[in-house]
Amino acid sequence: MSALLHAPGQDPRIEQLKTWVARLGAAWSIDPDSCAPASADASFRRYFRVRTGHPAHPTAIVMDAPPSHEDCRPFIHVAKLFGDAGVTVPTVLAQDLDQGFLLLADLGSQTYLSRLDDTSAHNLYTDAAAALVKIQAATRPGELPAYDRALLQRELDLFPQWYIAKHLGVTLDDRQQADLREVFETILTNNLAQPQVYVHRDYHSRNLMVLPEAGNPGVLDFQDAVIGPITYDAVSLWRDAYIEWEEEQQLDWLIRYWERARKTGLPVAADFGEFYRDFEWMGLQRHLKVLGIFARLYHRDGKDGYLANLPLVLRYTRNVAGRYSEMRKLVRLLDAIEGTERPTGFTF
């Protein structure tokens, strides 16, 4: 999530939202004028904090999801799936699907991103890994859409469309296009061969909340969850677009997660080397997609806050691509579109 919001007084839906919370009745006794921006994300959803007269919920969060752009039902469904798995998610306290409003339990304002440092990271990531294993272990077929080839491919296509063409202003020649298609196919073949579990899709430091009591972390922004590759959320967590850790540290946390997953009976690869390769190649899919999404958020949606994160995402992409001979064409393409000269004799 980001802090990109219109001021409440300028928002065409704010009076509609205030009227709705006021009509929730005496059990809630919500003060409409207490409505204040809490956060927003990269979609059309926004979140407001309100004061209530409810003894168990002195404050609550109102999700504003305009029905013309967003559907609240997946959020409600995934909240139940993850909550039943034993993970802390915002309880849905009231809903109006026709207007696109949800009243949610307030999990506070302390994101992982705001609290992560060298002292806190071990405990916070241990909690996040434990919650992730619970989510994955709860997987049941048919509950969520498949993270299938078509969806993975559409995401990859954001990279040439928005990052290369729109953001860099580069037109790929026929050979470069063919090389990129070949790289995409190699990545997708690996991704689709991985064991399939529930995937949050944005399990990172801006969507995990630090809770003051047992139940850490609070998990947000899960409405786009799918069933897909088992390494996806681990990539989101430890190769986060918003905070960087040394690879040795990433590896330590990933090994601990892998050991926990194996003990729980999750279908991770028995050989860590094989699992790590899956993790890295899943990361390529995610980071190429994210380069496209961040460029699109700027060029299409006017949200420039994500541009500062492009260099880190590109660094993740280059580091992984440079380690595998199958990805030499991706490295060559990145060199070409960014004007990078490699020393003579550079090999894979």
From TrEMBL:
Keywords: ATP-binding, Kinase, Nucleotide-binding, Transferase. One of its GO terms (molecular function) is kinase activity. It holds the Pfam family APH. It comes from the Bacteria. Transmembrane segments: none annotated. InterPro entries: Aminoglycoside_PTrfase (IPR002575), Kinase-like_dom_sf (IPR011009). Residues 36-259 form the Aminoglycoside phosphotransferase domain. This is Predicted phosphotransferase to Ser/Thr protein kinases.
